[in-house]
Amino acid sequence: MVAATLVVVTHSTFYASERLDHGISVWTRGTRGVDIFFVISGFVMVYSSQKFMNSADGWKVFAKRRIERIVPLYWIVTTLKVLIVLSTAGLALHTNLNFSTAACSYLFLPSRNLDGKIEPLVGVGWTLNFEMLFYALFALALFFRKDVFRFVGWALAILSIGSLFYRTSWPPITSFLNSIVLEFFVGMLIARAFVRGYRLPRGAALPLLAAGFIALLLPSSDWGFPKVVINGLPAALIVMSAVSLGSLEDRIPRTILYLGNASYAIYLIHPFVAPFPPALLHRLRIDSGILSVVLSITLGLAVGCLLHQFVEAPIASRLKAGRKALVRAPQVAA
Length: 334
Hints:
By secondary structure, this protein is mainly α. It has one domain (2-250). It has 14 helices and no strands. It has helices spanning 2-19, 33-47, 58-87, 99-106, 126-143, 148-162, 182-195, 202-217, 227-230, 232-244, 254-261, 263-273, 276-283, 289-333. Helix 2 (33-47) runs parallel beside helix 5, helix 5 crosses helix 6 and helix 7 runs parallel beside helix 10 (232-244). It is globular and about 60 Å long. The relative contact order is 0.15.
């Protein structure tokens, strides 16, 4: 939830600065929520795959569950973006549409937008391109019955080393040459330690959690280190501390837990609705950047929760019921 909300805040400041005459400066550090997102993803992949890592069909189960989790809602919002671009010229800023761009977006392949940036139709979907790459590598490791840490680790290391030679003029597919992929592997290592029973001491976990957020979000010098170090290490500290405090989950308010469940929907849908408050305020000649940001964040969270409640959750329930039906069918036949 925190990772998604940080991104919403950053985009809300961007929309205000872009659409209001006297907007607000863009708070760029909220994009570091993506680093938390990537570390969490690596953790979840290992932790949730313990039961079928040594199974011959484990890769199928893994791939199916990941596709069901990511693809349906992303395809829905991508289709929504296509319809918006086709029906309302000029409403969707920074977006061009052609067959190649649309196809790459649906297939989780990098492509360039109108501004020349390597982004899918749904801009925030660039992170999902990396997610699907990671899922593919993990599934391949399971398929070939290889040690997932060695297989995925070496693959991500090669991509990271390739980032040293990467040029923006290269084809979009080469954008996977990025050291940020190492954050997935860091999450995997945290999960292995967690599965083996390693935890941060309770007295240290909470202060270290706070320290991780301070290091991640407050302005600081990077001393020439790559972003994966400046952003990835604090993100790893946050995740490691959070899982060590897992027993405190019962004390978390239900509203916060619900926002966590809805975080994927919030992340995907907020770029569609968060620009409306500054646009409306501009028409009303109310150039309040702070008000715009507050309204954009509120609207993004609210619509994301509605999308989760009435679209994402029902789809997930139906897919889960379908899996159970397939499992019961052979038993009935027998």
